[in-house]
Amino acid sequence: MKKDNLENLFERLQGDFDFEEPRVGHQERFLEKMNQAHGVVSISRKRNWWKPLSIAASIALICVLGLQLTRTGPSIKEQVVEIAPEVSETEFYFANLIEEQVQLLRQEKSPETAKLVDDALLKLGELESDYEALEQELVNGGNSKMILNAMINNFQIRIELLKEVLANVETIKNLKPQDDANFTI
Hints:
Elements: H1 2-12, H2 26-37, H3 50-70, H4 76-83, H5 86-107, H6 114-139, H7 144-182
Helix pairs in contact: 4-6, 5-7, 6-7
């Protein structure tokens, strides 16, 4: 019987249900009316602005950090050129010369000279790392004349190393045909 009454009730109220949310401030207005009905004096609550402000501050902070991370300063090479413009010309000249010699060295690589060539390329990598450290030291405000001399000396050492290795490779290549000629069957 109760079930029948409930079904009839829902059928009668079909379409009369309120699915809308109350307007903003409904709870405050309701509490105010309740307090007035019971004679309670309430102190008006101030709106909480800290939540929206904290969200805005967080967004601003994230934007500023993002800009700081994406903004790149001048590279070490650019800073070195600002400190000593002649370095870029000297580096360009030496770098091209060294690159030509390295290409020659790689072309001359054979099974007999592989160890010598690989060791030379490894040493050149170390010298390049030393050069980058000198650049960083120059940017950090070290004694510029002494550092510039060390940078030029680094290039000269690399060129001398390449010349010596190329000469040794040539010697190894020339020894092989002579050794073959000395053997008789």
